[in-house]
Amino acid sequence: MNEESKTYQNIICTFCGALCDDIEIKVKNNKIENIKNACAISRKKYEHAQKDRTVPQIKGKEVKYNKAVSAAAEILSSSRNPLIYGLSSTTAEAQKAAVELAEKCGANIDSTSSVCHGPGTLAKQLVGMVSATLGEVKNRSDMMIFWGANPVEAHPNHAKRYSILSQGMYRKNRKDREIIVFDVRKTPTAKLADHFFQVKPNSDFEILMALQMLVSGRTPTSEDGRIGGIELVKLKDLAEKMKKVKYGSVFYGMGLTMSRGKYMNTWAAMSLVRNLNDYGRFVMIPMRGHGNVAGSEITMAWQTGYPFAVNFSRNYPRYNPGEFSAVDLLARREVDAAFIIASDPAASLPHEAAEYLKKIPTIVLDPHWNLTTEIADVVIPSAVKGIGASGTVYRMDHVPLQLRKFLDDSWPDDASAVSRIGELIEND
Amino acid sequence: MIRLKNGIIYDPKNNKSAVKEDIWIKNEKIVSKPSAEEIESAKNQGSYQEIDLKEKIVMPGGVDIHAHIAGPKINTGRVLRPEDHRHDNVPKKGGLRSGVGSTVPTSYVTGYRYSLMGYTTVMEAAGPPMKARHIHEEFGGLPFIDKGFLVLSGNNYFVLKFIKEKNKKALKDYLAWLINVTGAFGLKVVNPGGVEAWKEGKRLRGIEEKGTHFNLSPREILLALAEANDELGLPHPVHIHTNDLGSPGNYKTTISTLDLLKDYRKHITHIQFSSYGLNEESKIKFVSAADQIAEKVNNDDKLTVDIGQIVFGEVTTMTADGILEYNLHKLTGSKWVNTDVEMETGSGIVPMNYKKKNLINGIQWAIGLELFLKIDDPWKVFLTTDHPNAGPFTAYPWIIKLLMSRDYRLKMISEMHNKLGNYTDIAELEREYSLDEIAVITRSGPARALGLANKGHIGVGADADITVYSRLESKDKIAEVFAHPEIVIKSGKIIVEDGKLVEKLREGKTLVARPDYDKNISEIIGEDFKNYYSISIENYPVSDSYFNNLEVIPCS
Ligand code: SF4
Ligand SMILES: [Zn+2]
User: Fold this and answer.
1) Is the residue at B238 inside a domain?
2) Count of domains for chain B
3) Could you tell me the pTM of the whole model?
4) What is the ipTM of this complex?
C-alpha cells in the first residue's frame, strides 16, 4: 500500500488546555509524516502517539477487546462502591458516558480536576469569577499577570497565540502590554516579563490580600517592609498600575491553586480581580493542563449539577469534595473497585492513594501504557483522541471545539468503550 | 393512532373556546378524523388507542419564548451554586436519568419539569455563537421538549463593522451565515453597543450615545438588525433586551426603542425590567411606568413582548448584559461571574433573592402584573419569568393564578410592603384572565411570535403536542391544575400519564432556521476572523453530528 499523502489543516492539539487549533498534519499510509505549528510538547506527543499503545489485557494477559470490556462490566457490577476517575484527557462524549455509567453503578465519579484546579472551582463557588475567552485577552489586555503559571514550559504556544506575544486588535504586540510574573522561581516565563515578583513559597495568600488592601487604599503592615518576600513599595506601585489599566488579565496556574492555602489563594485572587473592575476591566483565566479538563467540569455540571466529586450511591448526584473526591476515597479505602479513564493516578496521586489501587480491582481505559496500566487488572485500549478519535473538547476558557480524526485506529474510542460497559451492565 | 374524546378544547388560534370535540393523532401530527377503514386497520394492528378525557381541559402544549435552559451561562450557574440544588434531588427512575433541580436545574431535570408542567417547546434565550456547540451538546441531554436558541448578535464585531460600513448586504449575509453555522433559530440583541462598551470600560445610556470602537449608537445597531431580520424573513422577529435594562427611568429608553422600530417586527423580552419610572421625590426613586409601556404595546401591531415576571424567592440572574450583572453584584454584594466572549458578547451571573416585603421587589412584581393586565390583546404579551432571572419557570402556574384571580392578587398584596400602593395601582386592577387568554399567553401567542406554524394550536396538521389539565373546579385550584397536568402528549407520544412522566427518555427536536446567504461571506470575514478570533474559522461551525433530531423552520 502506498497512498498519496494528505494534509489536514486546523487540527486541534489536545496535549494541553490551550487546545491550539492551527496544527497542520501531513499523513501518508495512515502515519503522520509532517507536523506544522505544533509546540515542542505537542510535536513530541504527536510523534509518540502511536507508540507504547495498549492492548486489551486481563491480569497482565492479552485478551480479545470484548473480553476486557466484559471483565470491566463484571467488576463494576459486582462492586458495592466503585470509583470512576480521570476524565480530563478524554472527550466530552466519553465524559457523558462515564457520568451515565456512574449513575448506573451508584458509583463515585471524580476528575483529575480535584487535584489540580479543583480548588479554583471551590473558590469560584464562594465569590464567582470575572473571566473572558483567550481571544478577548489577546485583543484587549494591556496588563497580563501570570501567577504560579509558566506557559513557556507548560503551554508553549500560549504566549504566541493568546497572550504575551500575540497580535490582537487593540493590543498589537508585546510592546502594547505590560507582563508581570509572580512565581517562587524565575521561570522561563518570568524571563519574558517586564516585572518579576519572586514569591516566598506558600505566601501567595498574603501577597494577594496585601494587593487587595492596597487597591482599596489601605496599607498592610509589615515589619521588614516586605510581604511574602516582596517589597511593599513595589506592591504598592503595582496596585496603582492595576487600577489604571484598561483590561488587565491574570493567568493562574497550579502554583497558586495547589500551594499552601489552596482554594483560599484562588479566592483571594478572584476577589482582587473582581474588585479591580471598579476601576478598569480585569479578568482571570485558569491555565488548565489536561486537554479537556474544562470539559470534565462542564459535562459533569450539566448532567449532575456539580463539577466533580460526585457520588451516586443514593441514585441521585451528591457533591462533596473531600468526601467524594478520588484522593480521599482511596486514602480512606472506601471504594472497592476503580475505573480509570484516560489518566495515570498511579503516577499523579499521593502514594497512599495510588498504593490502594493495587489492592482493589482496577480497570484502565487508555491508549497508552502508563504506571496505572501496570497495576491494573483490566486494560482496555482506545483510539487516541484528536488523532484516531473525534469528539468534543473544551478549552481552558470553556470554548468548545470538535476534534476530527485523521488516522484510523485499531481500537474503538473512549466514548464507545464506556457506553459499551454501561450497556453490558444494563443487560445483566 | 390516538383518539382523544370528550375533551374540552381551548384552541384560541382555531377559535375554539371550551369546545367538546374529538382530536385524532397519527404519528407525530394532529389529523382529521380517519376513515372507518383506517381506524379498523389500526385497531387490527393494535396501534389504536382511545382516551376518554371526561371533559377535562385540553390545550396545545405550552411554548416558552424565553428561558435560559442550556449552554455556558446556565451551566456556569450550576457550577457556581451547589447550595441551590443540594436540597432538590431527583433520583433516577426507570429509564429516566437523575439530576438536581431548583433555580438552575440540570438538563434532564429541566426537560422533566417543563414536561410535567405541560410545556413542550422552549426557546433558549441567549447563546454566544462561539460556544454554540456547548448548547447543542446540552440539547442532546434535554429530553422530551423541542428547543432552539437565539444567537447573540447586538455586540458582535462583524455586525458592528458592517453597520458602520453601511454594508447592508454583508450584514445580512453575515447574520444568515451566523445562524446557519451555529445552528440557531433567531437573532437576540442584548443591550446593543452597551456590552461592547462594558468591555471597553465605558458606559452608554439611552440609545443615542456613541462611544465604542465603531462609534455607533444603539439606535443605529437596533435599526440595522431589525431591518436585516425582516429582510432575511426569519421565522421570529428580532428579540430585544433593551438598553438600560434594570435601571430606574429606563421606560424612556424602551419607548424610544419602540418608536425607532415602529416599522419593523420586534419582540421585546422581559419587558418588566424595561418599564421602570423614576420619581426624584420618592426615597426609592423608583416607580411603575407600566401605563406608558402598555399604551405603547396596545398601539403597535408589529410588537410582541414577554414579561419576565418577578417571583419571590431565590433566583439566579444571568444575562449577556455584562454590565447589568456588575451593577447587580455591586447592589447585592453577591458572588458574581462575568465572562467576556471575544468578538461577540459578554455575560454575567449573580444569585439574588426577591423578597415579598421589600418595596422595590414588590414594585417590580407589580409592574409585571400591571403589564399583563393593561396590555389589552393577549396575543401581544407572553408569560415568562426570564427563567432563572426573575423566577424559575416552575412558578408559571402561580403566575397564572395571579392573572386569573384578583382575590389571590389582593391576598398577596396584603402580605407585601404597606407602601406598595404609592407606587403602583395593581390593587385596583379588576381584570381577570379567562382560560382562553391563558391559552394565548402560554402557547398560542408565543408559538405565533416564534413563527412556529405547527405549534400552539391543535388544528389539523399541527404537531401533536397536547396538554390535558384537570377540570378547574374552583379558583383556589388554579395553580395546582396548571402545575400538574394529567396527560401530556409530545410529538404524538404520551410523555406524562396520570401526572407522572413515562419512565423512558425521549429526545425532542432542535428547531433551527436556515436563511440563505452568499457563500462569499466567509471570505469577506476571513481576514479579521483569522487575526482577532482565537480559533480558526474552519473550527467554528457546529457540524451536523451534534443534531440528532433537527427541524428546519422555513424563512418567509
Ligand atoms: S500549547 Fe498546548 S495545545 Fe498548543 S500546541 Fe502546545 S501542547 Fe498543543
Ligand atoms: Zn433572558
Assistant:
1) no
2) 1
3) 0.97
4) 0.97
